[in-house]
Amino acid sequence: MVLTPGQQAAEFSLRNQHGETVALSARSGRPVAVMFYPFAFSRVCGSELAQIHQRWAEFADIDAALLAISCEPVHTLRAYAEALSAEPSEDHAQGLGFELLSDFWPHGEVAQAYDSFDAEKGCPVRNTFILDPGQRITQVISSPMGQPRDLDEVLAALARAR
After folding, report:
1. What are the residue ranges of helices labelled H in the chain?
2. Taking a C-beta distance cutoff of 8 angstroms, is the pair 73, 109 a contact?
3. pLDDT-derived band of residue 44, with 50, 70 and 90 as boundaries?
4. What pLDDT is attached to residue 97?
5. 71 belongs to the catalytic site
6. What pLDDT does residue 10 have?
7. 6, 39, 46, 77 — which has fewest CB within 10 A?
8. What are the residues facing 130 on neighbouring strands?
9. Sheet holding 126-131, edge to edge
10. What pLDDT does residue 92 have?
């Protein structure tokens, strides 16, 4: 199923980098970016997540939540979060500020529900779903596998979704 603006976002619960269960519905009441990415330690995804970490204050300024989802296991996400948190940021005291969620098992189930899974490669494609405070999709932003997202576009879409 292809998800389009105006549709209600599909509810999900996944474990974050700390092993805690995170439900999409817990972010109700604020704009949310549900961001699928292929692999944390890859060149493009790694630099993209590092940029989000560096610019986290901009997300916080518009009271936006970001849920970054890959099909990697929790321990991989924890290792990546620890490596990323070691880098300086505008708000270093708060760590990442966003959560890395594991769609590991059943493998890619949430990515598939969001029509964001590449079965051949076994990983999510680079799609971002911008949700309004009522968790309706307001915009879908897609980037090719080898290219990072335009964070200015994501931030602008989140600001409009408020």
Report:
1. 43-54, 56-61, 74-85, 109-113, 151-161
2. no
3. low
4. 83
5. no
6. 95
7. 6
8. 33, 139
9. 21-23, 13-16, 99-102, 65-70, 32-36, 126-131, 137-143
10. 43
- Residue 51 pLDDT > 70, yes or no? yes
Q: Distance of CA 111 to CAs 28, 122, 128, Å?
A: 20, 11, 11
Bond into 106 cis (ω within 30): yes
Closest by CA to 30, choosing from 143, 142, 148, 138, is 138
**36 phi/psi in degrees, rounded to 5:** -90, 140
Q: Which pLDDT does position 84 carry in this prediction? A: 80
Under 8 Å CB-to-CB from 17, ≥6 apart: which residues? 74, 77, 78, 80, 81, 99, 100, 102
**What does the block give as tokens for 44?**
């493009």
Quick: pLDDT tens for 79-96. 988 888 776 555 444 467
* Marked catalytic residue, from 32, 44, 45, 65: 45
42, pLDDT greater than 60: yes
CB neighbour list of residue 141: distance below 8 Å, 6 or more residues apart:
127, 128, 130, 149, 150, 153, 154, 157
